[in-house]
Amino acid sequence: MGVTKKHNELLNETLYTKVHPSGLKIYFIPKKDYSMKYAFFATEYGSIYNEFKNVNTGELSSMPLGIAHFLEHKIFEESEGNIFEQFAKLGANVNAYTNFMSTAYMFSTVDHFYDALGLLMNFVQKPHLTDENVEKEKGIIAQEIKMYDDNPDWRVYFNTLSALYNEHPMKYDIAGTVDSVNSTTREDLEKCYNTFYTPDNMIVFVIGDLEPEEVFGCVEENLTEDFLSRKKVDNIELPEETDPVSQREIAEKMDVPLPLFNIGFKDMDIPSDWKKRLKKALAIKISLDMGFGRGTKFYETLYDEGLINFAFSGDNSYGRTFCHTLLGGESKAPKEVIDRVISEIKVIKSQGFEDEVFNRIKKKTIGRYLSSFNSIQYIANSFVAHYMKGIDLFEYLEVLKEIDLAYVETVFNSHFDEENYTVSIIE
Amino acid sequence: MINGIDKRQLSDNVHLHLVKSDKFKTDLVGVYIKRPLNEDEAAKNALLTRIIERATMAYPTSKALAIKLEELYGAVIAADVVKYGEKQVLQFKVQLPNEKLLQEEGIFEEGLSLLNGVLLDPLVEDGGFNKEYFENEVNNLKDEIQSRINDKMTYAMERCIEEMCAEEPYRIYQYGDVEDLEGITPQSLYEHYLKVMTTSEIEICVIGDIDFDKAEAQIKEALSFEVEECVAYPAEDNGVRVAEVREVEDRFNINQGKLSIGYRTHTSMSDPLYEASVVFSYILGGGANSKLFKNVREKESLCYYIFARNEKYKSIMIVGSGIEFENKDKALTLIDHEFNEMLEGNFTDEDLRIAKDNLKSSLNSISDFQNSFINYYYSTILSGKEFDIEARKTAIERVTKEEVIKAGMRIEKDTIHFLNKEEA
């Protein structure tokens, strides 16, 4: 199978792609003169994949919340030896994360890259689950959940999502609850592993001062027969999500000196074409800078009145099945800030944005995208995160070029619905 | 890879460090202004960084400055104070997308001119900073200091250090205390600003795809500091002996207890055993292969996170972990046990090898990150050592098992801090 090569002029970076006959996608970006190298092995299987249906048999599976994350913990278990130690022996650091849409295993190293890559490939392809080691993990995950329960930034964020969504599993914490974790069994974990850790559902991403042939060769040599024999035959089942938010307001009491708040907007109009999806998300991000960024009268006024501080910001988040924007920060008067945000949305809708501001923010967006390619760690994270949304990070600038002011205004007008939003407050 | 480094003296107490590396997409300039860490200045210095980055004479509102940064392709200016042992360093950075890549000239120079505005020509009215901005930032800093408790993991460790170093300047929080902000006026802060700019050691570091002579000329033009006599910088006392182990508790409405143990290592950065003490804490609690992680987390399922960390300028080691409230004594026993195992030499040659390889590999990777690189570079200036990564790696490589044990034998437990839940 051939390797395809794509060069981006502005970035001065090249992306190599190879699709293995099994469906496994392998990506590589060479980064000359960098000491560190990163490799990711990731599956498109995250916390929102709790219900799935076998396309052949029609069998429906419903799993305890947080199982993708539980599985991530258990992949590190080996029948002999300790994975962390094996990576450490190579001078490599191994880690993993689970989010809504994916589970990723990665390592970074300066030396012994290919040994470490072989190790990564192998431990992810071969889990070692026993009733005993599944039980043992429950205490550790319970402490992880409790750690996040004491984190007000995390709470205000997940409360917003739980109030935004009616049925979509975005409304649940990624790690689930202490109860759902305790109810998880070895059989559940095995089933999810066999369903989603298949070559056609996974990718390998490598970045560093390396040669493409060796990278692809090393990945392919380390594919096990057992792994190659698996095929994804289940599809995620998502309940119908209706348009109105689930709850208009959600509040939680914590010991915080200054209240934390979020205002959330949900958008059920998600383009199925990936370029359109990226275009829409970029337009929303641009409109956030134009409407509420540090260069706006809105920001200046609220800041000078002491209603917001530098923590105030907004961001859009999206995937194949969801899209929402959260604006938030800290304020002594969160409700006042939210009222002002809503009024500002109405003002923007009636007056529109200025051309000059649009051009400036577009420049900023280009500069920030370019700057982000300084860090190989960031590129690796960003590339994989975009892949899981079905987006090619290298096409970012091409899509950005297609966006004009009229499009930004259209997207803004439909995305920010001043009658349909959620407010989350921690105080 | 770094293509070259050059050091140039700009005036008494002001040095320029030029680092050429063509692999990055941006150029980064960092200005480091060194002050002693003390109660009188800590809050003032923190406030100062926040005030002067708000507006300049040329861009007299925060909005105008923000718009200018957006026009410069999203350039970033960041100002903050950082605690290095018992020094407090005001840091100002400007990051600019590289001109060659954008095929547009003047970006670097405009960035420097913004930095000049922030540092040497901030918005001043009637012999003081703008009154509205001043009040705004005093309130914001108060909120920021009080919001420390939001990050319980860091807060717990800092509380441990505060209690442990109650009689030393190191106890001072990097942004000072809320009470210290009382009584500062826009005028008195401006006077303090003038003092800081004229009595501090200043280091300027530039990293990017730059030409040394051209960059030097541009920096000289934009950043002409006039430092007279420098303030005194008292050295850290790294010999404090522990009379008895103290136990302290704070209570909050929380779900997880945070255990922090503070130790005195009695091994400063200039001590021949310094590298051995770093290796000691790495084997004990540096990452997922450490003794603490393997035993307290993996074997006993007591926690999600546990680590040991060195405060390198103050000869302190902290062990931190998040646990169930009722497991405090159990965790303490397990941590003591692993600590004693280290002293008894119950770690393998492989543990030693792994620690050394990992510490060397972190040194190697510093040059992959512009900001980490200049911060690390600055830290070597602070410690009075030559910037020589190879020498540091050799020193780590030479550490023997005996030295690790010897460094460990010096370590004294000082303070146990526990963040507990509120009493029912």
Give short descriptive properties of this protein.
heterodimer, A: 427 residues, alpha+beta, Cytochrome Bc1 Complex, Chain A, domain 1, 2 domains, 7-stranded mixed beta sheet, 5-stranded mixed beta sheet, 15 strands, 43% helix, globular, B: 424 residues, 6-stranded mixed beta sheet, 15 helices, 13 strands
Annotate the secondary structure layout.
The complex is a heterodimer of chains A (427) and B (424).
Chain A: E1 3-8, E2 13-19, E3 25-30, E4 37-43, E5 51-54, E6 60-62, H1 67-75, H2 83-89, E7 93-98, E8 103-109, H3 113-125, H4 131-149, H5 152-164, H6 178-182, H7 186-196, E9 202-208, H8 212-221, H9 225-228, E10 234-236, E11 249-252, E12 260-266, H10 274-292, H11 297-304, E13 313-318, E14 323-330, H12 334-351, H13 355-372, H14 376-388, H15 396-401, H16 405-415, E15 422-426
Chain B: E1 4-11, E2 14-20, E3 26-36, H1 42-52, H2 62-71, E4 76-84, E5 87-97, H3 99-102, H4 107-120, E6 124-125, E7 128-129, H5 131-146, H6 152-164, H7 186-198, E8 201-208, H8 212-222, E9 246-252, E10 257-264, H9 274-285, H10 291-299, E11 303-311, E12 316-323, H11 328-343, H12 349-365, H13 370-382, H14 389-397, H15 401-410, E13 412-421
Parallel strand pairs in B: 2-8, 9-13
Antiparallel strand pairs in B: 1-2, 3-5, 3-8, 4-5, 6-7, 10-12, 10-13, 11-12
Helix pairs in contact in B: 1-5, 1-7, 9-15, 10-11, 12-14
Q: What is the element string of chain B, with H for helices and E for strands?
A: EEEHHEEHHEEHHHEHEEHHEEHHHHHE
**CATH architecture annotation name of the largest domain in chain A:** 2-Layer Sandwich
Task: Write down the CATH class of the largest domain in chain B.
Answer: Alpha Beta
**How would a crystallographer describe the biggest sheet of chain A?**
7 strands, mixed
Fraction in helix of chain B: 40-55%
Secondary structure: number of strands of chain B: 13
Task: Please count the beta strands of chain A (DSSP E, at least 2 residues each).
Answer: 15
Structural class of chain B: alpha+beta
**Protein chain pair with the most extensive contact, residues per chain:** A-B, 71 and 68 residues
Assembly state of the chains shown: heterodimer
Radius of gyration of chain A: 23 Å
Contiguous runs where pLDDT drops below 50 for at least 5 residues of chain B: none
CATH class descriptor of the largest domain in chain A: Alpha Beta
Shape summary of chain B: globular
Strands in their spatial order, largest beta sheet of chain A: 1-2-3-9-4-8-7
